[in-house]
Amino acid sequence: MALHKDSYVVLSDGHKMPVIGFGTFAPQKVPKNLAEEGVKVAIDVGYRHIDCAFIYGNEVEVGRAIRAKIADGTVEREDLFYTGKLWSTFQVPEKVRPALEKSLKDLQLDYMDLFIIHSPIEFKPGDDPFPLDETGKFIYHNTDIRDTWKALEECKDAGLVRSIGVSNFNHKQLELILNMPGLKYKPICNQVECHILLNQSKLLEFCKSKDIVLVGYSVLGSSRDERWIDQNSPVLLEDPVLNAVAKKHNRTPAQVAMRYLLQRGVVVLAKSYTPARIQQNFQVFDFHLDNEDMRSLDGLNRNLRYVDSTRWLDHPKYPFHEDY
């Protein structure tokens, strides 16, 4: 498909999602006001898709930035696509809507464009986002994900959200929802880690076959947050093959890493709080990777996950035992 800065995908429910989103996660040590500044810069540059989550702890700041850009006439609310996420301690059906309403209140928005289940891995319901027992082990919970999904459908019916989807699900977990009796709305997307070292080709193929959009996070590697990332993992943007392709096109490695995913039909989330990079990352619409470029980048896949969730390997809903 031809891509330009206003490019979007039409979701299975008829709504439109811009193909590039601005990611707002940052390690804990990063001051929250940088999220506010970053979102303002991103909207000025042309981003119309903002990806955030309750657990990032910055929805107040992100909401402030969105409202500032609406107030100064840069955008209207309808121009923006806001994604929020249901945290793992709110998956019991009766906690879903209050969690969404809390985020909307923090954002000071009337509705979200998209609300997704952050992860199939569920913790004990309550206000502690990472509940531990007295021995320091995570306290798990195991709601039937289909019951959580029904509660999301009700939020959509109530007009609090326009589209609903999931994140970090494997194909079997997606099928559980797709095949559930009385399904009203199917997930419009599955947001997962996706980049040249983890290209998700099987999951992408599966999602395309079900008219589910694959949204990629950590597309440039990762923020290398010590809490989540193995500090010895390779730095994605230093990959020699990626750099050779970037040189050939006179582009940055980040621009090529994003363009590769866009050409495969993945919606990409780009994260940076540096204004120059926020702008650079959006300049991916005016060049094209040829078949040879795509093949050499395909060859980099090694199923490497930056985001380490192995601490929850023993969770009944741990998604990554499956091949895809």
Automatic annotation (TrEMBL):
Taxonomy, superkingdom: Eukaryota
A Pfam family assignment: Aldo_ket_red
Entries under Gene3D superfamilies matching the protein: NADP-dependent oxidoreductase domain
Active site: Y56
Keyword Nucleotidyltransferase (UniProt): no
Keywords on record: Eye lens protein
Sequence positions that bind substrate: H118
Every NADP-dependent oxidoreductase domain range: 20-301
Sites annotated Lowers pKa of active site Tyr: K85
InterPro entries: AKR, AKR1C, Aldo/ket_reductase_CS, NAD(P)_OxRdtase_dom_sf, NADP_OxRdtase_dom
Gene Ontology molecular functions: oxidoreductase activity; structural constituent of eye lens
The keyword NADP belongs to this UniProt entry's keyword annotation: no
UniProt similarity note: Belongs to the aldo/keto reductase family.
Name by which UniProt lists this protein: Rho crystallin
Native species: Xenopus laevis
Lineage of the organism: Eukaryota, Metazoa, Chordata, Craniata, Vertebrata
